[in-house]
Design brief:
The complex is a heterotrimer of chains A (271), B (241) and C (394). Chain A is of the alpha/beta class. Helices cover 35% and strands 25% of the residues of chain A. Chain C has helices at residues 6-11, 20-63, 77-85, 88-92, 95-98, 103-110, 123-130, 135-147, 156-160, 173-204, 209-221, 226-240, 248-272, 276-284, 289-317, 321-325, 346-355, 360-390; strands spanning 67-75, 115-120, 150-154. Classes of the chains: A alpha/beta (271), B mainly alpha (241), C mainly alpha (394).
Chain lengths: 271, 241, 394
């Protein structure tokens, strides 16, 4: 059963980039920090229908790869990205792609909830405001309400939209960050270990929220909690030492993975 | 076999304990088959009573294995091959318990056969030996996570089935020869049937072991032809269709 | 996982926390902490003591500077006629000696009428009224007091007038206005330039040897003695650019050069302390770099920047040496009209008055110091208020 040399994506049909099914595609992506290589030749597809989970041990590059998808690695001066990443068929690293537009279309939720030190309303309204998505106060109110409702936070905060975003509990803050990302109507939502800082109940609420958002947005979630990846995703990618070891249906990965490295990691034999 | 142990050693220990119990259960079942057959051949009612008594130990082990498996699933959240192994252990325990029951049934018929002087018993010990070997091998395969060994056990079942077919025909002939032979022959028939069922259960276990080891189901194997459905008047020698 | 062998684990005896040795160590530790706290407390008390001494002595000396002595002169109609005709000296005769030089302008401004009128007393009488003065003046004062013709009240002229040679009529307003104009020029130049420089250095500048060089240079600039800036101002602004001498414009530019490094350093630290998570959040939602800086980083860094500005401006307010170099030391009798009129500033004024011979200037100097301190407090208070308003917890 040792199939180390198998193409990790052999099972899934590799459709052409840009087809309606696929939202984002990556081909041959490598990332270097100065001379150190962090990601080695990763190719992967992200579809709107599935929640895709990236799992792997610490330092395997899953967060680094996630940050390539919305060019957040640009903020690190020594980072260099090679290969091709496409959003709806368009290369996101080409000079004609506006980074600001890209980051509005590919939203991000971070590990530690980081609402702006403004009111709840302002937190959600900031994105639409700077992108000019609302033509007046009434429409902005509608956008804010819709985003908070989609994030499952409306009922809890509708009476106190003027209060500071940082006064909420950890789970509520994270949902506020999700609402903030949703407010600019993205096509993809990237989540970098969104529940690491939360207690089990808040975590369950966020997982349920991800389940509800599926289908409307392509969601990619990085998590070091394998049970969470198993619960939440339909496709799972296992990263190890900067390479993509295996990518397949979540059920398959967790009941019958093909690669020994994957099996060792998920059964707890790693390290 | 996994090359490295789990990072949490207690998990390995619990899995080892589970496997040990399966092995013990299998050993007891194998011994029960052997001793029941010996008691049958020697017409030893006391030995047969012991076999019946020891079946209780097999039942207790099944309960213990079930408890262990549930605990591992609840506390350790096993994944991939660990999960398949634990689920297989649960199912195997149930099947081995039934094998033990069949051996017990064989032993229970020994007192009924004590007074008779029945001849065509020679094939039965051989059949029992093969069935016992199958049980032994399939549980070895489970512990070793050896899919090939499991497959080999499946293939041996055809030998058991063939034995059953010939014993069936010869006992039928025997019954037709002399009405006094009917009662003991019927008992022997049931014994043969029990052994044939033991063989089938062993192949069931082999399929479970194969799935636990590889994650795929064994393709439908060629079963030994069961000619027992043919009406007595048309007994022919040859393979049934 | 555990690397210790069984033997190693077994041989280590449990720690004796109650032994005498341990108790001694614990007591020593408590003793050290107590001593440290006492030292800190002593340092604070010492500093507070010095500060209190300064304030109390200033208040005691300067309080009197805010008061002035007036003498009642009962004008007869004959005297009024005489004064109206132009003979002030002759009309008042002996009284003219005990009245100050400002009495005549005061009388003229308030209208020459018959009857009692309170006029400012001469310097010597004023001194005699407030503290032991010259013998003759004391006698005159005593006589006047007996007659009920002398009173001491609030010296409004001090706060509204400008520099003069007569300490009874000298005012602080000229220097005050000069300081105010200079500070405005300094703030308008140093604050935007300093903040924008700090933003550029932190957010946009690449990390290479040139930016390191700039950073070192700015840090050194902040430590340069202020008189060097005065020489710079003299050489460039006055001699080369021929800007009006002794004007708040030049003073403001010179002080701005001095204050800017302080603001840049404080600004850089404040910007560095904005957590990167806020930046990430803003970038992640598609904000451009300018939007990140001005919508998120700057508001959060503003408290720190304002603190740096307070420190810089307070230092600039009290600077004397560079302003002396660019000529803001002349005797200016009228308050400046605009930033290009000649002016002087409070510290320079204090310095000039402290040089004067007349005894009346002693209390005026202290009074001016009090005014300077009040100005400083007001400026700091305003900045602290602004800082608290902008302070947002994150």
């Amino acid at each position: 059963m040792d199939t180390e040399t198998l193409n990790p994506m052999a099972d899934l049909k590799m459709t052409e980039p840009g087809t309606a099914d696929l939202k984002m595609t990556a081909r041959g992506v490598s990332v270097f920090y100065g001379d150190k290589q962090a990601i080695d030749d990763v190719s992967i597809d992200v579809s709107r229908e599935h929640v895709t989970a990236f799992i792997g041990p610490s330092g395997c590059g899953k967060s680094t790869f996630l940050r390539c998808l919305n060019r957040m690695n640009d903020t690190i001066p020594s980072a260099r990205v090679t290969g091709e990443i496409a959003l709806d068929g368009e290369d996101i690293y080409s000079p004609s792609m506006d980074v600001v537009e890209l980051r509005a279309r590919v939203g991000m939720v971070f590990q530690k909830p980081n609402p702006f030190p403004k009111s709840i309303y302002e937190n959600v309204a900031y994105g639409p405001r700077i992108h000019g998505l609302a033509t007046g106060k009434a429409e902005m109110d509608r956008i804010v309400e819709r985003s908070l409702k989609r994030a499952g936070l409306w009922e809890e905060v509708k009476e106190r939209l003027d209060e500071s975003g940082t006064a909420l509990s950890g789970g509520q803050q994270q949902r506020l960050c999700i609402a903030r990302a949703i407010a600019v109507d993205p096509e993809v939502i990237l989540m970098d270990e969104p529940c690491s800082a939360l207690d089990p109940i808040a975590t369950a609420k966020i997982e349920e929220l991800i389940h509800e958002l599926r289908g409307r947005y392509a969601i990619v979630i990085v998590t070091h909690n394998m049970q969470q990846a198993a619960r939440v995703s339909q496709r799972t990618a296992f990263f190890h030492l900067g390479s993509l070891v295996e990518y397949g249906e979540t059920t398959e990965i967790f009941t019958n993975p093909r690669m020994t490295r994957t099996k060792d990691y998920i059964t707890g034999r790693y390290g | 076999m996994a090359t490295t142990g789990h990072t949490i050693k207690a998990f390995d220990e619990e899995l080892d304990a589970l496997r040990a119990n399966i092995c013990e259960m299998g050993g007891l079942a194998e011994a029960a088959i052997r001793e029941a057959m010996q008691a049958l051949v020697r017409r030893d009612a006391a030995a047969a009573a012991e076999v019946v008594e020891r079946d209780r130990r097999i039942d207790a082990l099944e309960a213990e294995i079930e408890r262990q498996a549930v605990q591992i699933i609840a506390l350790r959240a096993p994944m991939a091959d660990d999960l398949r192994e634990v689920v297989a252990a649960l199912k195997i325990a149930g099947v081995v318990e039934r094998i033990g029951d069949y051996a017990k049934n064989i032993a229970k018929r020994v007192p009924a056969l004590q007074d008779s002087n029945i001849r065509p018993v020679s094939l039965l010990p051989e059949m029992a030996r093969i069935a016992g070997e199958m049980v032994h091998n399939v549980l070895d395969a489970f512990v070793a996570r050896d899919a090939a060994k499991a497959e080999a056990v499946c293939e041996r079942d055809s030998a058991v089935d063939d034995f059953y077919n010939s014993i069936f025909r010869s006992l039928l002939t025997h019954m037709m020869e002399n009405p006094h032979n009917i009662t003991p022959s019927t008992h022997l028939l049931f014994v043969a049937k029990n052994l044939e069922r033991i063989g089938d259960h062993a192949t069931n276990v082999a399929e479970m072991v194969y799935f636990a080891a590889t994650g795929q189901h064994l393709a439908d194997r060629a079963k030994g032809a069961d000619t027992t459905g043919i009406v007595p008047g048309d007994i022919e020698v040859g393979d049934g269709s | 996982m555990n690397d210790l062998t069984h033997n190693e684990r077994a041989e280590r005896a449990p720690t004796e926390w109650k032994s005498a040795e341990m108790q001694r160590r614990i007591r020593k530790r408590y003793g050290a902490e107590r001593r440290f706290r006492l030292v800190g407390l002593a340092a604070i008390l010492l500093s507070a003591g010095f500060l209190a001494f300064l304030i109390v002595s200033m208040l005691l000396n300067g309080a009197r500077g805010f008061t002035s002595t007036e003498i009642r002169v009962d004008l007869t109609p004959a005297q009024t006629a005489s004064i109206a005709a132009g003979d002030y000296e002759g009309a008042l005769a002996g009284d003219a000696r005990i009245l100050s030089n400002a009495a005549w302008p005061r009388l003229r401004d308030s209208g020459i009428r018959a009857g009692p009128v309170w006029l400012p007393a001469a310097d010597a009488i004023d001194v005699a009224a407030k503290s032991p003065g010259a013998e003759e003046a004391e006698r005159t004062y005593a006589r006047l007091a007996e007659q009920g013709r002398v009173r001491t009240g609030l010296n409004r002229a001090f706060l509204t007038g400008s520099d003069a040679t007569d300490p009874t009529v000298v005012g602080i307003w000229g220097a005050f206005k000069g300081s105010l104009l200079t500070m405005i020029v300094t703030l308008l130049l140093a604050f935007p330039v300093g903040v924008l420089a700090a933003l550029y250095l932190e957010e946009y500048a690449p990390r290479n040897r040139w930016t390191d060089l700039i950073e070192v240079s700015i840090n050194n600039l902040a430590a340069v003695p202020s008189i060097i800036f005065g020489l710079l101002g003299l050489a460039i602004f006055l001699n080369f650019m021929h800007l009006p001498r002794s004007a708040p414009l030049v003073g403001g530019i010179t002080l701005a050069l001095m204050t800017m490094p302080v603001i840049v350093i404080a600004g850089r630290n404040a910007i560095k302390s904005v957590p990167p998570s806020i930046r990430d959040a803003a970038l992640g939602i598609g904000a451009s770099r300018i939007q990140v800086v001005f919508h998120h980083v700057l508001p959060l860094a503003l408290p720190g920047i304002l603190t740096g500005t307070i420190i810089g401006m307070a230092r600039a307010l009290g600077e004397t040496a560079p302003l002396l170099m660019i000529g803001m030391r002349a005797f200016i009798a009228a308050p400046p009209g605009g930033i290009e009129d000649p002016a002087t500033v409070l510290p320079v004024q204090i310095f000039l008055w402290s040089d004067e011979v007349s005894r009346g200037f002693v209390e005026k100097t202290s009074a001016a110091i009090i005014v300077l301190l009040v100005f400083l407090l007001a400026m700091n208070g305003l900045a602290i208020y602004l800082r608290n308003r902008f302070e947002q917890r994150w």
